[in-house]
Write a structure and sequence with these properties.
Layout (H helix, E strand, L loop, with lengths): L9 H13 L6 H8 L4 H15 L11 H151 L5 H35 L3 H7 L1
């Protein structure tokens, strides 16, 4: 798009054309506009035409045309002026087309520059977002490594504690098995003592029965003799009762100190 805020002037076009002449360059609309860096083709052409007309040398007095050639001269001049007018119109139309095309190209260039700046802004935003994402990813990786280390340490600690509890449970199981065997032995001893007591009681009953029979038969015996006989009969019973009492006391003591609570009631 043409720069309308700082339009070109006649003096700038004339100076540019003079500079091109000094540099032995061809003075054209494109050359002048390229040197100025701005201005439309129409404006440059107008000022350049004025410069060229001012630089034209004054026409010398043409020699008089013979009367017989005057009509031919007038016709040739009219044709030349008509051709010049056509060429000027063609040049003006071409200049207008070039100016329009240039404005379109400048507009497209400005649009492309704006799009490029927008892309640069977006690229910078994406770069910043990528850097933030990479920083977040590194932080997550560090957290993962830290958690992995803690997990491995916890697994090692748990494995050690599991082994310790397994060993402790094995020891408790062995102690319980020994206590169970001791309980069985004690129950076996208690059964043997009970059987002995039962046998002693049966024997005593038998002896009492025999004594009763003997008493009925031997009422004539003296009281001292009968007491001595009774004492001799009751002495084994007293010894057995005392032994049974001691065994029960030892069993209760053993239950209180060694046996589990759920087995104490069974051993009583």
């Amino acid at each position: 798009m043409s720069n309308t805020q700082n339009p070109i002037t006649q003096n700038e076009v004339s100076d540019a054309a003079e500079a091109l002449q000094v540099a032995k360059a061809k003075v054209t609309i494109l050359a002048v506009r390229e040197k100025l860096g701005r201005g439309s083709f129409t404006t440059v052409k107008k000022f350049l035409d004025h410069w060229q007309s001012s630089k034209s040398a004054p026409l010398q007095q043409a020699p008089p045309v013979p009367p017989q050639l005057e009509s031919l001269w007038i016709e040739a001049r009219r044709v030349a002026e008509a051709n010049l007018a056509v060429e000027r119109e063609s040049l003006s139309a071409l200049a207008l087309q070039l100016d329009t095309r240039l404005e379109e190209m400048e507009a497209a260039t400005i649009e492309a520059q704006n799009a490029n700046r927008l892309l640069e802004v977006r690229l910078n935003d994406k770069s910043g977002e990528l850097e933030r994402t990479q920083a977040t990813l590194e932080d997550l990786r560090r957290q993962r490594d830290n958690m992995q280390s803690k997990l491995e340490s916890s697994e090692a600690t748990l494995s050690g504690e599991r082994a310790s509890w397994t060993s402790h449970l094995r020891e408790i199981s062995e102690q319980f098995a020994k206590l169970n065997e001791s309980q069985i032995d004690l129950l076996s001893q208690g059964t043997a003592l009970a059987d002995a007591l039962q046998a002693s009681t049966t024997a005593l009953a038998r002896e009492v029965a025999d004594f009763t029979v003997s008493e009925s038969k031997c009422r004539v015996l003296s009281t001292e003799k009968l007491s001595a006989h009774m004492a001799s009969l009751l002495q084994p019973v007293s010894a057995i009762s005392a032994r049974l009492t001691e065994v029960e006391r030892q069993m209760r003591k053993l239950n209180r100190r060694q046996l589990p609570k759920n087995l104490r009631g069974r051993s009583r």
